[in-house]
Amino acid sequence: MVKAADRTQHTPPPLSIPGRPGGGGNRRGAPVVKPKNFKETMQRLWHYFGNERKMLGIIFMFIFFSAALSLLSPFLIGKAVDAISLDTKVDFNFLELMVMILIGAFILDAILTFMQGWLMAGVSQRIVKRLRAALFKKLQKLPISFFDKRTHGELMSRLSNDVDNVSSTISQSTTQLMSGVIVISGSFIMMLILSPILTAASLLTVPLVFLLTRTIAKRTSVLFKNQQIQLGKLNGQIEETISGIEVVKAFNHEDKVIAEFEEVNQNLREVGLKAQIWSGFLMPIMNVINNLGFAIVAVTGGFLAVKGMVTIGAIASFITYSRQFVRPLNDLAQIFNLLQSGVAGAERVFEILDEQEETDDVKDAVVLAKPKGHVVFEKVSFGYRGDVPILKDVSFESKIGSSTALVGPTGAGKTTIVNLLTRFYDVTEGRILLDGRDIREYTRDSLRSCFGFVLQDTYLFSGTIKENIKYGKPSASDEEVITAAKMANADPFIRRLPNQYETKLSENGGNLSQGQRQLIAIARVILAKPSVLILDEATSSIDTRTEIHIQEALLTLMEGRTSFIIAHRLNTIRDADAIMVIENGKIVEKGNHRELMDQQGKYYSMFFNQFSNVESAADK
Fold it and tell me: How high is the pLDDT of residue 289?
């Protein structure tokens, strides 16, 4: 049956280069999006690790041993240098031993780095898989009102970009942060052990590193924020132009949109150029500072070596340790920013997971079995917002097998009546009865299973035409599908397609016309054979000739079924058992076509405005 789905829709960490834009959620240079509650979000994210915590322990052990090996290597290099400089007499045995140990350390370090990266990638992907599955499952349980308030693009961004952001944070920033802390701490300890004086000398450049990073990052953050704004404008202009290319061509606005694109593109180029120039300053100046630090260490170390306070090998080791100490300091700030961005992405995902789901069925809810279709509205009032009522004290009865047409101006509340009947929304006041029982006393699944929808804006899924028709009844045979298509007058155009019923449809049937999509949607409902039929401008996108055939099919389908018809083309509802004129959320007129015409009220005016010539001919 057709349900609500028809309704819509160990390598070193990266250097801190604020101006290096990249892909995904962790774009370098992009403004850092900070989470509102870092601690709470991290605690919730930690729960998703679940059984992965043992694996994280193993990964941390690999990181620890890998960092230990990276700290051992400079020490061994220093010992090897000292073995060469022993009074011009080289201790080849000791030197050979140091070289062999170094080679072994490098190989083992490479293996440990590969293992930690491999294992961490698996951990992150399994966690993200669970997180994405939980988010998608949550979306299926949220009420229609949630989707009314948010754009599809925003929800897609949370499912893709934000979740990928979390994945990158887990797989990269986490390991880099742990490794960086160990390397910084270990390098500082080894530097103190080797020479406190050299350690003090090497720390002279640390404030310069922080000052440089902060100054450039402060300037580039503004520039890259503007770059992202201009990039968003450019993407929006491109998307809008491509989506409306037929309108652009019809009104000869090609030159205008080209000029608009060139203007936005030029703005993006200018701000991007400034951002790249400023970000490009970082590494050259950083190299100067690092070289200055090496010079200070070398001069100080040479002086101490002459005094006999340190050995040449110790100086060689110290220089390497100083590089290991300064570089992670520079990187940790960027890693922390990436971590913040990842946690912010997780926070956006958790916002969806915390949304209120559709209300549960009442405790003693019953399954609606063999529905008959007797519908009663009793003093129903409702508003999508509490302070703006849409329906006001609406009461009516639709008997079993009757057809009820809802007419009135746009926004009067016609579709709202259908939304309440299907429990897309619950009434604010009053109640709705189906077969003598309040619809809130039925299970929601069994209630919605008795409705069949043909909406004005129908939706087709990617797949074959046959699969789309069978969406309302997956167990249907091919013969039933063909019969339904024939009743909907869809069979002729389907037969003309290269693969007929096996023709693949693009997203929302983009390779079909609007009218053809509507015919398939009607066939879908015919196949489902629902107890209550809802037609919301079902023939609005179909030509007049086809509409005649569709009306015949719908009349056959409506026999013995309660039907609600929303229509602006009043000739499609002349045979309805009851016609209700809705205006400002109230039923202002009710009766069949002839009764309402005799009253010469609202309906008469609407009909006369549409079909004055036809009515005059009928009177004659």
Answer: 77
Name residue 381's beta-bridge partners.
429
Has this prediction a pTM greater than 0.70?
no
pLDDT tens profile 311-342: 777 777 777 777 777 777 666 666 766 666 67
For 595, residues 6+ apart whose C-beta sits below 8 A from its C-beta are none
Judge contact between 438 and 431, C-beta under 8 A: yes
CATH class of residue range 32-194+331-354:
mainly alpha
82-91 LR contacts (CB < 8 Å, sep 24+): 82/311, 82/312, 82/313, 82/314, 83/313, 85/311, 85/312, 85/313
Helix (H, G, I), strand (E, B) or coil at 201: helix
Dihedral over Cα of 522, 524, 527, 529: its sign: negative
Confidence of residue 148 (pLDDT cuts 50, 70, 90): confident
Residue 38 has pLDDT above 80, yes or no: no
To 5 degrees, how large is the angle CA 156–CA 162–CA 164? 105
* Cross-sheet strand order for the sheet of 391-398: 391-398, 375-382, 429-434, 437-438
- Which range of 79-88, 175-184, 327-336, 401-410 scores highest in mean pLDDT? It is 401-410
How far is residue 336's CA from residue 36's CA, in Å, rounded to a whole number? 15
Q: Where are the domains of the chain?
A: 32-194+331-354, 196-309, 368-450+533-541+562-620
Q: For 368-450+533-541+562-620, which CATH superfamily applies?
A: P-loop containing nucleotide triphosphate hydrolases (3.40.50.300)
End-to-end distance of the chain based on CA atoms, in angstroms? 45
Decide: residue 115, CB within 10 A, 0-12 exposed, 13-18 middle, 19+ buried: middle
